[in-house]
Amino acid sequence: MYRAPSRRKAKKDFVKPNLIPILDAVFIFIFFLLMSANFVKIYEIPSDVPIISDAEPPPNQKPLALTLKISASYIEIQTGVPARTYTRIGKAADGFYDLEKLHSTLIDLKNRNLKEETAIFEPIVDLTYEEIVKIMDATRELRNTDPALFAKDKDGVEMRLKALIPKIIFGNIQS
């Protein structure tokens, strides 16, 4: 008598692979990857885009229009509309811009124009990132050793200013 092979008749049970050890290993690898990663801190210095307006300024207020033209050998501070040169600050003996003189000049200007919050930077020469940041810091920050400046807030209460000229605008971005 003919007998059929047994392997054709025997049903094989499909065995599902056990994924738990694989998933455990993947999560452990992800954990170690995150723990060994170096996270980079990114610092941002806010700067606004220049605003062009045809509107006339209020009749009782003259805009300061503080502009810092940065050339290879000096920083020229200009004020008013149309711009006129207020002063020029050259480089110090070490070959870097005299940022202490710039800072003290801006404190004098701020003392006369307490509501002024904007300075326009117009670099005429290529500057390194460090030079731009140092000039921005000298323009924006009030130090503990600086004289106290007080201005009235919107409620009429005199408040001590925390920043010298906090808003920086780059005037010639495309040139």
Could you characterize what this model shows?
The protein has 175 residues and is α/β, with parallel strands linked by helices. The protein is 27% helix and 19% strand. The chain has 4 helices and 7 strands. The protein is elongated and about 120 Å long. The longest helix has 17 residues, at 20-36.
List keywords for this structure.
175 residues, alpha/beta, 5-stranded mixed sheet, two-stranded antiparallel sheet, 7 strands
Q: Which range does the strand content fall in?
A: 15-25%
Helical amount among residues, as a percent range? Answer: 25-40%
- Helix tally equals 4
Terminal CA distance reads 100 Å
Q: Globular, elongated, flat, extended or rod-shaped: what is the shape? A: elongated
Tell me the series of helices and strands, N- to C-terminal.
HHEEEHEHEEE
The helix/strand class is alpha/beta
Count of individual beta strands: 7
Catalogue the unreliable spans. Answer: none
Largest sheet, in brief, is:
5 strands, mixed
Mean pLDDT across every amino acid position: 83
Radius of gyration, in angstroms, nearest whole number: 33 Å
Strand line-up in the sheet with most strands: 3-2-1-4-7
Topology overview:
Elements: H1 6-9, H2 20-36, E1 67-70, E2 74-79, E3 84-90, H3 99-112, E4 118-123, H4 129-140, E5 150-152, E6 158-160, E7 167-170
Helix pairs in contact: 3-4
